[in-house]
Specification:
The protein is an all-alpha fold and 585 residues long. It contains 26 helices and no strands. The chain is globular, with a radius of gyration of 26 Å.
Amino acid sequence: MKYLAGRLGALLAVVAVIGLLPRLTRTDPALTILHARYADRPPTPAVLDAIRAETGLDGGPLHVLGGWASGLLHGDLGESWVSGQPVGPDVTSALGVSLTLMGTSLAVAVLLALALAAGTLRRGARRTLVTTRAGVGAAVLAALPEFLLAAVLATVLAVQLGWFPALGWGGPEQLVLPALAMGVPAGALLGRLLDDALPAAFAEPWARAATAHGMPARRIAGGALRRTLPALLPQLGLVVVGLTGGAVAVETLYAIPGLGGTALAAALAQDLPVLQACVLLLLLLGVAAGLAARLASRALLGPARADGALPPLVAPPLPTRRTVAAAALVLAALLAAVVVTGLLRDPLYADTAARLATPSAAHPLGTDSLGRDILARLGHGAARTVLTAVAVSAVTLLLGLLAGAARAGALTETANALPAVLAGLVVAGIVGPGPWGAAAAVAAVSWAPLAAHTSALCAQERAAPHIAVARALGAGRGHRLRRHILPGVLPPVVRHAVLRIPAIALALASLGFLGLGTPAPAPEWGRMLSENMPYAERAPWAVLAPAAGLAALGALAVLTSAAVRSRGADDDGHRDHVRTQPGRR
């Protein structure tokens, strides 16, 4: 009951904020309705007063919210301010489309995650796991922008090869390309997290005992999956909501009438009844997904969680492959060289005679549609994109750790259900458009996956026997958190935060493209992607350069993390070796 009450309170708070959006943005809804319905009528005070009386806006925001809530209790989602039609049929139809697309994309994500972790599952079950992989391939796939992957798939598989339709919605064949575009990045993220957690499961005594007793490797791998899934199921629930409401770019590219595109169009048009209905459905979906993940996690953990008999998952000191540190240094040097070279060029100079020019000595990475040098814009945009993304990632890591340790599940699920674009619209309306507003908007919603991961890991750590011993010895809550719980939670959550840096960079840039972040013509990697997408077939270099930058950022973050982890594993192994030497203490 407490679980549902918390979610209901958070849901009502968010819906109320959406309802107050006209007051926050200092815009007049009556003027919006006038432009949408009666474009030929002058915006006189009498006309605006008549529109307010007709739509019930003359009673103030509390009156509007009360009327909307009263209609909701009777199953009425209101009428669109723009079209004047009932909101319910269109929004529920869009939800059905998004749920169908989400289900297919989720299947792609789960299959890809299992494929990425298959090597670790196979080696761990056979007791041949001696090193860990850096996971660069998964990091690169997770860093790929969904709309870029969608455009490449549409160009190659639909236009050039003709295997699938490029646009439309209705048949099963029209599901394939958008499901791949959405499922691949999500599956790469889930696969990286799963691959990171499996070695700790295979290092537990039950796995060694199962191997000694001749248990088939298939059953041992299944047991390891069951042991690691409870910490990852909340991430799967968040992915469900993200794939439903956050697929705006993919829905737009493939002309899919989904819920994400409907919510964005309503937000841009100030059509609050439609926006409120979309957000309400997303929040309800988030509550349902969170509840399902919670119940599934409890079922997988069994009575050990309640009895305090669940051993903590401790990653073994397995070194990463020796080439990881060298690859990180090479990639960092290459990226730094590109950035420094670009900084020496003018990112704003437009050579109109060299529009969409191919790479040459004068323009090593070519030019964009305005004749601006791609290398210059890539270099100047690196500091703005990368540094801001790293700063926002640090903030989201701190917020995620605090919220996860405090078990703020209702707030976490609510924040995850809100697309970053919608948060950007609200923040921009309050503080105005700009880089700080965009950073605040992305940080306001991007901490949710880290909080869910932290909360799941904390729940497992609290169920460990040594926590009960520490409590019996008189250790306070703060001491148990600092000395017994956080050491097992921090490493995987930090690696998770590192993996999300490219996605945060892209979210920041997408807000800038919508006019809610850094204004044009300032160079920014995501803006470069969005501006040059219409010319991807004629000038692929204009799109590949910023996409390669984001992919390199993700790969560098994972390689650096793996190198640091490998160094720690080597140190742990050396200390263990010293402890086992005769005559040493």
